[in-house]
Specification:
This protein is of the alpha+beta class and 364 residues long. The strands form two sheets. The chain has a six-stranded antiparallel beta sheet, covered by helices on one side. Helix 4 packs antiparallel against helix 6.
């Protein structure tokens, strides 16, 4: 079967094309090897009223002119259009309800190519300076203060989503966008609001396979419900902390502590069968963090490790803010609601405390 040549698609040749409502397509953005996302989306800059924005277009030509069987192409094109509608609707919903720490779409529309009138759906977003990976790699003044400020802003964005009953499910460094040093949670393409309308509900994995929470990775008995989605977002937020301070997401540590053939992509072991092994690996990772962390503040180091320990706990029954762990042992877990048990208020307060503490130390 021949490989689809996207460069011959009208969606790949939109530079200088006019879009409805006064938008002009500018330079195409080339993907580098570290970028993920749909193979059939193409990104550009777009301009309106002298300001630059980010444009994401969907390449229907991949299915209209593809080499696969017609039934397969129709199925995949339907899936992509459903995904487009899904991201558009969730993003508009969040923007209209004031999710200020989430990078939502500014406009969604459909144009057609100048060449053969192929429909081209697109989304337009505020243009970010880049994602957090680029910021950490290229900025000269990335200090502990900024890292906690960024984590606080991301956690606030996640709380804004949860208050709207939207669950991100794909929190990772490439989806943390920076705007003049401020951070926003981006890419709602795998976010879930209404499970009955979720176009990828039947998929084994909903987010990036590299970052999966263990109970999802090993297909545990936990259902596809609000609890699972809250637990996933907590795990991914904890993984973001390890990326900021130890330069790898959490899965980059824990899966080095178990045999390679027990990795979730290489084994038929279930979550219940692998859990004890994962708990031992988790303890080893936490000990590693305790030995290597260097924030020049022993008390803050201890508190941060406790937060990572709680949020990245492979046993989902013990994944929540450390203070919730204490409350559950005093009051009984049955007395703690889902909103409190998996809520972000205490996590946000912790990041705020860290930020203020290191800002004060910096000014001394």
């Amino acid at each position: 079967m021949k490989v689809y040549d996207q460069e011959n698609s009208p969606a790949a040749r939109m530079t200088n094309q006019s879009l409805p409502n006064g938008w002009i397509v500018k330079d195409r953005i080339k993907k580098d090897s570290s970028q993920t996302g749909s193979a059939y989306s193409i990104c550009y800059y777009a301009e309106k009223d002298g300001k630059s924005y980010f444009l994401k277009v969907y390449d229907l030509n991949a299915y209209l002119k593809g080499d696969e069987a017609p039934e397969r192409r129709v199925k995949e094109m339907t899936r992509m259009l459903n995904q487009y509608d899904h991201e558009k609707n969730i993003s508009q919903f969040c923007r209209e309800r004031g999710a200020s720490n989430v990078a939502c779409i500014i406009e969604a529309n459909v144009t057609e190519s100048d060449e053969d009138r192929t429909p081209i759906p697109y989304l337009i977003f505020e243009r970010a300076d880049g994602d957090v990976r680029k910021f950490l790699e290229t900025s000269e003044n990335v200090d502990t203060v900024w890292k906690f400020k960024s984590l606080h802003e991301v956690a606030v964005g996640l709380q804004q989503l949860h208050m709207l009953k939207v669950y991100h499910q794909d929190i990772k460094p490439s989806n943390i966008l920076t705007f003049n040093g401020d951070s926003k949670l981006g890419d709602l393409g795998r976010a879930v609001k209404d499970l009955s309308l979720c176009p990828f509900f039947d998929d084994v994995y909903w987010g990036d396979k590299t970052y999966l929470a263990p109970e999802v990775a090993y297909s545990s008995e936990i259902g596809k419900d609000e609890r699972r989605m809250l637990l996933t977002d907590l795990y991914l937020l904890g993984s973001l902390i390890t990326y900021y301070f130890f330069y790898l997401p959490y899965n980059g540590f824990i899966y080095k502590k178990i045999p390679a053939n027990h990795h979730y992509l290489k084994t038929a072991l279930t979550y219940s069968e692998i859990l004890e092994e994962l708990k031992e690996a988790h303890s080893s990772v936490i000990e590693q963090f305790q030995r290597t962390i260097n924030l020049h503040d022993k008390y803050a180091e201890e508190k941060l490790i406790q937060l990572i320990d709680a949020l990245c706990n492979p046993d989902f029954n013990h994944r929540h803010h450390p203070s919730i762990l204490l409350a559950s042992t005093i009051n009984g877990e049955s007395n703690i609601s889902i909103g409190v048990r998996y809520g972000l208020e205490k996590v946000i307060s912790s990041f705020d405390w860290f930020h203020k503490r290191f800002l004060y130390n910096l000014k001394k």
